[in-house]
Each structure stands twice: as structure tokens, then as C-alpha cells.
């Protein structure tokens, strides 16, 4: 009776722990659901580790396409920060696809129109959107690496055969049959076989362990896609159809997976049943046999797995776009894309997403745009505003502006370059290579939207102006629209036939300098570099003589030292 009481108490204890776990999980789920409603449109507050940033590129690197945003442009425009600003996903699949989407600006009208339909529908059907997001969040994350990193390493496992495991398991049968007649011999044989199985089990298990995370994620991916398909989302009929086909094709991967995944934490769970199952695995190698079959099945259905990742990722990225649009307090617009050979771009009240209090500007450019103006007056920020909005328009069908209209472009920039110390290349070499890739894109027949900040700043004035003029002329041809910022006021005259002049200015009042950050027509007529020296406490001798020297050069086109030499 005492033993029964102890057993009953133990079972009750296990039941309490089990129920408590269920209640905690349910409460956590309810809080997450409520947050999806309450925080819709709030600014994202997620932090990223270096490992998380690295694995974001997993899907993108496996789906490289012509016309995607290259690394130079991505870094010039701080697109990683733009990604963080619009990332409202809750799984590795969602955020990797969103990253890929943001880099795929080659433009596909049909795909953009479908994305718009999905985003609008999900925005108008909050309950369905939240339910879908909850399902998609169950995929979770893959840790330090992308799922594709794990899949790529499947080749390291080689061809997986379970023949030795089957032979060892079959040896148990004659030993058991011999037990009635030769019990001691049978027990000894079973013991030896069991020891061999346990030793060899841990040897093979070490090879399997690194892949458990990826296979577990694939199982969650399949279950998630099944739940999403059951929702019968009318606007996502194409996605759910492809999911169903891929789910049917991957049934072989899932068969018997219970034995593999419950083995990964059985020795630390403290659950008596799990410990018993663990001894069964060690004795019969069930999880190793099933793992080998799963590896074979996965290799045969990598394309179907990719379909599931693509469709689930697209749906979560679309939900992220919904939240992103709702978060834009300064407003947004759905872009309008023109067709034909024209290259004009129009932006009304566009602004930079990453600025806390942005100043909005408008532009209607039918040919190249040359920006002049003082240091820190807003030239670079304006270039980035136009470039980022062009990319957002062509990727997530959203622009941070009151209106955006343009054809589909291939977007390139040469702005925030640095010396390449690793390859021994100076700033000038890095810069001319960056510019050359834009010219190559033009030569290939692409419709290019280019952005250049301080062209050829890495060389002397005479050669810079001469070479800059010819490069910018090449970027001012039909089929190309180039926005360039420069301090070389000479370029405004040399390029007046192919570029429209705009500028930013400043005001100096009460010993301080102020920038309105408003785009103005025409070339800059003021200079602030020498005035800034005075404001920072430089001597009058330096500032006044510098000002006189500059004014004399503007009037005569000759520097003072050159005139002195000529007199002598």
C-alpha cells in the first residue's frame, strides 16, 4: 500500500509539472497574440547579434538573380539599417526572405502587384493576419547559422547506409530464441551485443548531432505550412497550392522523426519515459536508422524544401510590410511605375526613413541631377533618400513619400567608399572601380538609376574635374538617370546641357550656422568651409586671407601664387 501511495504521489507530481508547463506555454502564446494586435505599427525594438546578421543572407545567397542590389550600393545606403527598420518577422525563414526581398530590386510588375494584393488583404483582415503570424512564428530560429548552411554541409555526411544497424538488430533475434535452451549463453551474447550497440551508437550519434537543429527546423517548417494551408487564405491561393504540393513530396522526411528529435534532449529532460526510450535507441539505433533515411529523403527533395521556405518566407515578409506601413507616421505611398523608354522620376515630399525628424523634399527629374552646396547641407542625405525610396518601391512596393512615380531601374551607387587595405588599393582605385561597374551596367543596356557622391574625390583638382565631366556625361545618356553631388562648382557649367542644377544652402546668424535642408533650383552661390573655420576659432589672418584668395580665384580663374610667379 505504501508503494502505491508513493507511486501515486510521483505520478501526481509529474502531472502537475506537465499541466504547469501547458499553462505557461498557453499564457506565453496569448501574450504574443495580444502583442501582435497591440504593437501593430509600433517601431521595431529588436536587437541583433553579429551571428544573427551573418545568417540573414542565407536565402539571398542561394537565390542570386540578375539586377539585385550589389554590396557597394547596399553598404553605401546603410540598407542593413533599413532592413532592421522594417523587420517585423518572427522566424529565420521570414527574416531571411525579407532580406532577400529587399535586395531583389530588379523589378517584376506581376510580383509587385501580387505583393500589394496580399499586403492590402492582410492589413484589412487583422485576425487572419495574426493567426498566420502565430503559425509562422512556430518555425522559430536556427541559431548561429542559416538553414541553408546546414543543408550545404549534408555532403560532408557522405552516403548514409543503415545496413550495419539492421544486421546488429537482427542478431538479437537468434539470441532471444536460444534463451530457453541456453539462457546463460543467450544473456552473455545479448550483453556483448548491447555493449557494442551502445559504444557504436555514441560514435555515430556525434556525426548526427550537428544536423538535428536543421532537421528539427524542417519539421517545424512542414507543420507550419500545413497549418497555413488549412487557413484557406483566398489571396494566397498560389502560395498555399505550392505548399501543399511540396508537403506531399516531403512526407518521407517526416516519417518516424519522433525517434530522432526526442533523442536530442532526453538525457536532460528528467522525464522517465524519455530515459526509457533513450535506452531503446541505444540498443536498437532506431534514431540513427531514421536519421539516415531522412538525410536521403532530404537530398532527394531539396527543391520541395526550398519551395516551403520560399512561400512561408514570402507570407511572413508580406505581414512585415503591413506593420512597416502602419509604422510610417510621416506617411507612405504605393508607387506608380511608368513604361516605355522614359527615365523620369518624380517624388513628392520624400523623406529618409532613418531620420527622427526628417525634412521632406520633392524632385521631378527628366535628366541628370547635379547637386551643389555647403558641407553638411543635406546633399548626401537627399541622394540616399531618392535611392532608398527607389529600392523600397521596387522591392516592397512602398515609398516613404506622398507620391512616387518612375520606371523600373537597376539601382547603383558610389558614395561611402573606403580604402581597401586588404587588397592594397587606394581610395582612388576603389572609387574608379565602383564607377566602372555603373558604366558597365549602362553599356549592358540596363536602365540605370545611379548615385554618385563627390565623384573622383581621391585625385587632384584638374584631373578630377576633367575626368568627372566625361564620366558624368556618360551617365547622362538616354536610358540612364544619374544623381551626383559635388563641391566642384565648375561642373555646373560643363554639364549644364545634360544635368539640371539643384543645391542646398545655409544661413549664418549670431555666430552660428543653420541648415534648412531644403532642395533649391540652380547651383550653389555660397561657400561655408572658410566661414566654418572662423566659427571654430581659427585666427582672422587665416580666414580673411583664405577668403580673399578664394574670391580672387573666382574672379580671375588663377590662384594668387601663380600670379606672383608670373610677375617674377
Instruction: Estimate nothing, just give the exact number of structural domains.
Output: 2
> What is the CATH top level name of the largest domain?
Mainly Alpha
Overall mean confidence score, pLDDT: 86
Largest sheet: number of strands, sense, barrel closure: 6 strands, mixed
Beta-strand residue fraction = 5-15%
Q: What's the number of helices? A: 26
Uncertain segments? 265-270, 562-568
CATH topology group of the largest domain: MutS, DNA mismatch repair protein, Chain A, domain 3
Globular, elongated, flat, extended or rod-shaped: what is the shape?
elongated
Task: Summarize the amount of helix as a percent range.
Answer: 55-70%
Find the count of extended strands (DSSP E, 2+ residues).
12
Strands in their spatial order, largest beta sheet: 6-7-8-4-9-12
Radius of gyration, taken over Cα atoms and rounded to an integer in Å: 32 Å
CATH architectural label of the largest domain: Orthogonal Bundle
Terminal residue distance: 122 Å
Structural class: alpha/beta
